[in-house]
Design goal:
- With 106 residues, this protein is mostly helical.
- The protein has one domain.
- The chain is built from 5 helices and no strands.
- 25% of the residues are buried.
Length: 106
């Protein structure tokens, strides 16, 4: 996380999202987020369809695992999740949609 972000407070998700995108400037980091989010959806649907709800415990491990590898090894910053957990979770899914729709480069 940048020094500026440590001092900044966001009053809305609309204010937060540009910061979130700045923290995901590295293409590999964004790709790891997309892979993790896709796997979360696959495991979620598989668990529900098969009634194997035990697999739901893996969702945060999968989602955060891929994202945090992207941040620590490629983006070289701390995930915004540590300071803005709800906005970050929402940001991940909005960024996912933006990547899938071509608004943000893959």
């Amino acid at each position: 996380m940048t020094e500026q972000a440590n001092e900044q407070r966001f009053e809305s998700f609309k204010e937060f999202y540009p910061f979130y995108l700045q923290e995901h400037a590295n293409k590999v980091c964004r790709r790891l987020h997309v892979v993790g989010s896709t796997l979360v959806l696959v495991v979620l649907f598989a668990a529900v369809l098969s009634s194997q709800f035990i697999w739901l415990w893996a969702l945060p491990v999968i989602g955060y695992g891929f994202a945090w590898v992207g941040h620590f090894f490629f983006e070289k910053n701390k995930p915004a999740t540590f300071k803005y957990p709800l906005y970050s979770l929402l940001g991940d899914w909005v960024m996912y949609k933006d990547v899938l729709t071509g608004k943000i480069p893959w």
